[in-house]
Amino acid sequence: MSEELELRVVHYPEPVLRKLADDVEAFDDELRETVKGMFERMYADKGVGLAAPQVGIGRRILVINQTGDAKNKDEELALINIRITDRSGAKVRAEEGCLSFPGIYAEIERPDRCKLSAFDPDGNPLELELDGFLSRIAQHEYDHLEGVLLVDRMTPADKLGNRAALEELVEDYRERRKKLARKPS
Ligand code: CO
Description:
A hairpin with a 5-residue loop joins strand 4 (106-119) and strand 5. The protein is of the alpha+beta class. It contains 5 helices and 5 strands; from the N terminus they run H-E-E-E-E-E-H-H-H-H. The protein has one domain (15-182): Alpha-Beta Complex (Peptide Deformylase). Helix content is 32%, strand content 26%. The model has no long low-confidence stretch (mean pLDDT 95). The radius of gyration is 17 Å and the shape is globular. Strands 1-2-3-4-5 form a 5-stranded antiparallel β-sheet. The structure holds cobalt (II) ion. Cobalt (II) ion is lined by residues 98-100, 140, 144.
């Protein structure tokens, strides 16, 4: 079923994951289609958040559902042109994964709370104050818009522990590039 979805998640070290995402300029049907497609992809891949650069779109669009369950529509957050305006609270360490780093998990330290401003897909402004798991997801996804990745926030020990898996991702990427280069366009 997931193969039928239009949007696919790109894996580390695809260069699009390192780019600073641009603001969305039009709150139109195309944006709302993108948001819908991102939610579908996120649920299909069993994620709780997804950032547009992860599906190859360099725009400031995030989708989140902390329950990861498509039936819980009330938990869905689509955040456009998001800015985190404040981070506070105790620094908390917890395990994180990332759809762009399949099979890799690491303990990441982040402040418990954050304040953010954003727009919904219809262009209505939102101001949110988050804490706990939801705040963690928002901060993780926000990092993607800044080109910051899980691997950058790992402790040296986790980096070492995940070294083989990270090298495998780099090798997969090289293989994909080679295949693309061989294909006549
Ligand atoms: Co991620």
